[in-house]
Amino acid sequence: MNPLPPLEPLLDARALHTRRQFFGRSALGIGTAALASLLGRDARAGAAPRGQPGIGGLPHFAPRAKRVIYLFQNGAPSHVDLFDYKPMLRQWHGKQIPDEVVGGRRFSTMTGGQTARPVLGEITRFAQHGRSGAWVSDFLPRTAAIADDLCFVKSMHTEAVNHAPAITYFLTGAEMAGRPSMGAWLSYGLGSESEDLPAFVVMTSRDKEASCGQIFYDFYWGSGFLPSKYQGVAFRGRGDPVLYLSNPAGMSREMRRGLLDDLAALNEAKRRDFGDPEIATRIAQYEMAYKMQTSVPELTDFSRESPATLALYGPDVTKQGSFAYNCLMARRLAERGVRFIQVMHAGWDQHRNLNTQLKIQCQDVDAPSAGLIQDLKQRGLLDDTLVIWGGEFGRTPFLQGKIEETKQWGRDHHPYVFTIWMAGAGVKPGLTYGSSDDFGFNPAERKVHVHDFQATVLHLLGINHERLTYKFQGRNYRLTDVHGHVVRDLLA
């Protein structure tokens, strides 16, 4: 690409004195640096790949994790049926849960007006596993087999009682959409080790029966007020993972390269006139799309994976768009230097079909989740990869509906205590942290809030959560807002 001539001094001075130019240029900041870095690398023939840099001064200290794989279970897995064994539920089965336990808590509209709240005993069987003695349901046998590699947090709690706000809270630190997601913060702060793949990739799947209406909103992986180059790139579940990855008929790769060079020159001229960081984003994203034409076909080619590796993830591993497929893709993205990989699976919203759908949902995710941990571990990647498994809240220990209607048993949303697990870089394996009360209703000890969880994840990546900020509308924002403490007892 030919360098552009400098602007005329008179025109440049005039541009600098307009209100639009003043604010546009002052907001450019990181976008200019990113653009200069991008164009500079392209100009250096034969330069070694350097990935995509983040902002200066990060990490704040030596990280334990280089990357994150977040296996987000949309709809909220039932903690009292899967991980949080409570014999009291079986003893009280069918009886009204004590009012002093509920304590005036609010629930979704589905049980908000329900006066009869009979306790529902677990519908699964629990056993202790491994040297750690972790309690895991028989619906998750593969997860149970790796219990000593996992760190269970059984005292998680949140504030939102409905799905979208609760998911948004976990992923962005706020219940309302508009804030940057966790992956966007890390893409902005740390960049990526990959030269030809995005720093932040998202993949989605859902239960085969399409039993619930969970929607994947773009703001779950949005960049909020950060430049849009930091938003997640969503891979599709069918066809090309990214739209328009293939060249149109009649266009060669060389022709596309020339087109992008000319387009970059036009965009750069416009950027110099208006100082808009989104123009720098556009240039960078066009360039990334060009690089992905080569990297993505290799990424999605499983032909060199051994039969033993494929077996780890279960029978659906070769079905594009399945949770198993996405978990293997997550491992392949991790070993190629992608910073944040968000794998979202919907179908856990069992309001009226707990007796039938919970087991099916567990079968969908059990082998792929455990297989991912085993695969990362045998490749030495678990040492610097943090894996997180969990939903936006738990499910009520009491029944939604009537106890005699067995086929329609279900549980409502329960934000007051629930379980997630983590594994890999920097967390203590074989640890069960915190606990709930005898009914699995409230935290009993070592409460962990969503912002505490976020602060801990950033800490494992070498980031002081109070120092990773971005100024927007006169205020310095951060993922944890003005809250959060690192849960140091979880750290290895």
Estimated structural class: alpha/beta
How many domains, as an integer?
2
CATH topology of the largest domain: Alkaline Phosphatase, subunit A
Overall mean pLDDT stands at: 88
Which strand-content bin applies to the residues?
A: 15-25%
Largest beta-sheet characterization: 9 strands, mixed
CATH architectural name of the largest domain: 3-Layer(aba) Sandwich
Highest-level CATH class of the largest domain:
Alpha Beta
Q: Which regions have little confidence, pLDDT < 50, spanning 5+ residues? A: 1-49
Name the shape in a single word.
globular
Number of helices: 15
Proportion in helices: 25-40%
Computed over alpha carbons, the radius of gyration is 24 Å
Number of strands: 19
Short description:
It contains 15 helices and 19 strands.
Description of the structure:
The structure is a single chain. With 492 residues, this protein is of the alpha/beta class. It has two domains: 11-39 and 248-299, no CATH class; 67-241 and 312-490, 3-Layer(aba) Sandwich (Alkaline Phosphatase, subunit A), CATH 3.40.720. Helices cover 34% and strands 16% of the residues. The chain is built from 15 helices and 19 strands. The chain has helices at 9-16, 19-28, 30-43, 79-82, 87-91, 99-102, 141-145, 163-172, 182-190, 253-274, 277-299, 307-312, 323-335, 354-378, 450-460, and strands spanning 52-53, 67-74, 126-129, 134-137, 150-157, 191-192, 200-206, 233-235, 340-346, 385-390, 394-395, 413-414, 418-424, 431-433, 435-436, 443-445, 448-449, 470-472, 475-477. Strands 2, 5, 7, 8, 9, 10, 13, 14 and 17 form a nine-stranded mixed beta sheet that branches. It has a two-stranded antiparallel ribbon with strand order 1-6. Strand 15 and strand 16 (443-445) form a beta hairpin. Helix 3 packs across helix 11 (277-299). The longest helix is centred in the C-terminal third of the chain and has 25 residues, at 354-378. It is globular. The N and C termini lie far apart (50 Å). Mean pLDDT is 88; it is low at 1-49.
